[in-house]
TrEMBL record:
Domain Mechanosensitive ion channel MscS C-terminal, chain residue ranges per copy: 183-266
The name this protein goes by in its record: MscS Mechanosensitive ion channel
Residue segments, region Disordered: 281-313
Entry's transmembrane regions: 20-40, 61-83, 89-106
Naturally occurring in which organism (per UniProt): Hymenobacter roseosalivarius DSM 11622
Segments forming domain Mechanosensitive ion channel MscS: 108-171
GO molecular function: mechanosensitive monoatomic ion channel activity
PROSITE patterns given in the database record: UPF0003
Keywords linked to the UniProt accession: Cell membrane, Membrane, Transmembrane, Transmembrane helix
SUPFAM superfamilies on file: Mechanosensitive channel protein MscS (YggB), C-terminal domain (SSF82689), Mechanosensitive channel protein MscS (YggB), transmembrane region (SSF82861), Sm-like ribonucleoproteins (SSF50182)
Subcellular location: Cell membrane
Membrane-topology descriptor: Multi-pass membrane protein
InterPro entries linked to this entry: LSM_dom_sf, MS_channel_C, MscS_archaea/bacteria_type, MscS_beta-dom_sf, MscS_channel_2nd, MscS_channel_C_sf, MscS_channel_CS, MscS_channel_TM-2
Domain of life of the source: Bacteria
Length: 313
C-alpha cells in the first residue's frame, strides 16, 4: 500500500498548523485581554450607574450588556487574527436566511428583552413598588430582561412578561407618597345630615395615622332606598397595602362608634310589604286606607264600599 499521498497530506496539515500557530497564540492573548476588559467595563458601568441613583436592576442589566458586548467584540477580533480572511461582513452573509428564521423564532424573546430594557430605563415602577396588572396585585420582586415577578398579598409569585407590562395599563399603588381612601356611610332619612357629617369628620380626625393635609371630607353622594349615603374620604401615608388596610379598619371603627354614641341611625336595607284587601270598607278611600297614598287636593273619590251601598239603594 502506498502511504505517500496520506503522508503528504498530513505533512501539509502540519505545515499549515505551524504557520497559523503564531496567529492562534496572538488571538488567544487578545481574547484574554478582551475578557479582562469586559470585566473592567462591567465593574465600571455598575459603579457609574449606581452612583447616578439608577435602580439595582438597571445597573445590573447595563453592566451585563457591557460585558457581553466586549466579549463579542473580543471574539470577533480574535477570529479575524486567527483567520485573516474572516470579516464580520462574511459572518452576516453566512447567516443569511437562517438569521431571519432565528429572528422570527425568537421574536417574543427579543420583544420581552427590549420591553424589559425600556421598563428599566423609564422606570414606571421600581422594585418594592406595589402594582396591579389585570387580576394580579402585589409587590414587585424583580425586573428581569424577560419578565417581571411580583409577590401577591397572599404569598404567591406571579411572573408577567415585560411586553405585557409595557403595552398595557398598570396601576402603581405606591407611585406617590399619599393615597386617598373612601367609604360610603348610610344614615337614616330622619337624621340631621350636617350633624352626621360633622361627627364623621371628627372621627376621621381623631384616628391615628390619618393625613390632616389634605384634610378629610364628607360628601352626600346618594339618596338610596333606605339610607342617605355620605362618602367619607381621607388620605394615608405611606400608601402600602398593610397601611391602607390598617387605616381603613381604624377609620370605620371610629365612625361607627361616633355615630352610635351620638344617636345617628345606620339603618340596614328594609322593605315594606302592603296588603290590599278589597273587602274592607276603607278600600279606595284615600283618607283612611293603610297603603299611605296621599289624599290629594279637592274632591276625593268615595270608597268602593260606599259606592256599592248607594247603588244598591
Amino acid at each position: 500500500m502506498d502511504f505517500s499521498i496520506a503522508w503528504q497530506k498530513l505533512n501539509q496539515i502540519g505545515r499549515d498548523l505551524m504557520a497559523v500557530l503564531p496567529n492562534i497564540a496572538i488571538g488567544v492573548v487578545v481574547l484574554v485581554l478582551f475578557v479582562l476588559l469586559a470585566r473592567g467595563a462591567r465593574s465600571l458601568v455598575g459603579r457609574v450607574t449606581q452612583g447616578k441613583g439608577k435602580s439595582h436592576s438597571l445597573s445590573l442589566l447595563l453592566s451585563r450588556l457591557a460585558y457581553v458586548v466586549m466579549l463579542i467584540l473580543g471574539v470577533l477580533v480574535a477570529i479575524t487574527i486567527i483567520l485573516p480572511g474572516f470579516t464580520p461582513a462574511s459572518l452576516i452573509s453566512a447567516l443569511g436566511v437562517s438569521g431571519i428564521a432565528i429572528g422570527f423564532a425568537f421574536k417574543d424573546i427579543f420583544q420581552n428583552f427590549l420591553a424589559g430594557i425600556l421598563l428599566l430605563l423609564t422606570e414606571p415602577f421600581k422594585i418594592d413598588d406595589q402594582i396591579k396588572y389585570k387580576e394580579f396585585e402585589g409587590t414587585v420582586e424583580s425586573i428581569q430582561t424577560r419578565a417581571t415577578t411580583i409577590r401577591t398579598y397572599d404569598g404567591r409569585r406571579v411572573v408577567i412578561p415585560n411586553a405585557e407590562l409595557f403595552t398595557n395599563a398598570v396601576i402603581v399603588n405606591t407611585a406617590y407618597e399619599m393615597l386617598r381612601l373612601q367609604y360610603d356611610v348610610g344614615i337614616g332619612y330622619g337624621d340631621d345630615i350636617a350633624r352626621a357629617r360633622q361627627l364623621m369628620l371628627e372621627a376621621v380626625h381623631e384616628t391615628e395615622g390619618i393625613v390632616q393635609d389634605p384634610a378629610p371630607d364628607a360628601l352626600v353622594m346618594d339618596l338610596a332606598d333606605s339610607t342617605v349615603n355620605i362618602r367619607v374620604r381621607w388620605w394615608v401615608n405611606p400608601p402600602r397595602r398593610a397601611d391602607v388596610l390598617d387605616a381603613r379598619d381604624k377609620v370605620l371603627e371610629s365612625i361607627k362608634n361616633k355615630l352610635t354614641a351620638n344617636g345617628i341611625d345606620m339603618p340596614f336595607p328594609t322593605q315594606q310589604i302592603l296588603f290590599h284587601d278589597q273587602t274592607e270598607v276603607t278600600d279606595g278611600d284615600r283618607r283612611t286606607q293603610r297603603e299611605g297614598w296621599p289624599a290629594g287636593k279637592g274632591d276625593v273619590p268615595a270608597a268602593r264600599a260606599a259606592i256599592s251601598e248607594s247603588s244598591e239603594q
